[in-house]
Design goal:
Elements (H helix, E strand, L loop, with lengths): L1 H13 L5 E2 L7 E2 H43 L15 H12 L10 E6 L2 H21 L5 H13 L2 E7 L9 H21 L2 E6 L16 H7 L6 E10 L21
Antiparallel strand pairs: 1-2, 3-4, 4-6, 5-6
Helix pairs in contact: 1-2, 3-6, 4-5
The protein binds flavin mononucleotide.
Amino acid sequence: FFFFTCCLSLVEFNRGGTKVYGQNMNNKINGSSIAALSVLMCMGSISAYIIYSLVNEKKREKNESNILELIQRRRSVFPKQYTSEPVSQAIIDAMLEGARWAPTHHLQEPWYFVVFSSAKSRKELGEFLANDYKNTSTKLGKFSQKKFDKKLKNAEAASHIIAICVHRTDGSKCPEVEDICAVSMAVQNMKLIATEHGVGSYWSSASVHENKKDRAVKNPISLKKFLDLPFHSICIGWLFVGNCDAKCFKKSQRKNISDKVSFR
Ligand SMILES: Cc1cc2nc3c(=O)[nH]c(=O)nc-3n(C[C@H](O)[C@H](O)[C@H](O)COP(=O)(O)O)c2cc1C
């Protein structure tokens, strides 16, 4: 449209703007008025374009500040803070869709999630986590009945529990740590989408490590069996999800970033 009006204006000015148009029609239009109209339309297009760009720029700035605000609002919200109202399937689907778009080296998309949504499956998971805790803590002489009961209660209180897994094969193209990073970014996406919907979540690493002092992730065999994970895949945690009061997203603290950055 902009190009067209420019051309029309130029043509009209070149013609001197004196020719009379539409001689065979009822309405006779003077060439110079068409030229003037074209210039006006041209200026209108330019102004519209400038206004559109300014509005878009403002929108982009607003989006940027919204994203930072969302990142800062995200909190770990624990099962005792969840309400009994289940999280809708639409929100769980949105979280999983967010996970799908995490960065991933070689497009390996190494995430794999097992969603415990039914009361029965969460009870089974709660029993697995509680019994695993019992076995390991008893060996260390540190068993606490209170902690055991809490594991059962937490699984019951959550609306959904998502096993966070890293799918790997013999032929995986990336070092394990890169796949773990990609899955962690997917989890952050899920947590941000949950936060945006006012849904609480927290990452638990209970029963994930055979030995907490290991440098690499090595799942206990019982966990791999429970989740039916292939040999090379690993579980790196559990995302507990539940509806909660808006007050659960309370302000937190972080150290100043300047202590953690050096510019060169
Ligand atoms: C990889 C990972 C594992 C975590 N494991 C646990 C856990 O086992 N138990 C727990 O209470 N919180 C766990 N958290 C949550 C942290 O405790 C929480 O993020 C931290 O206290 C900061 O609070 P915020 O998330 O509200 O900002 C884990 C977080 C990450 C990233």
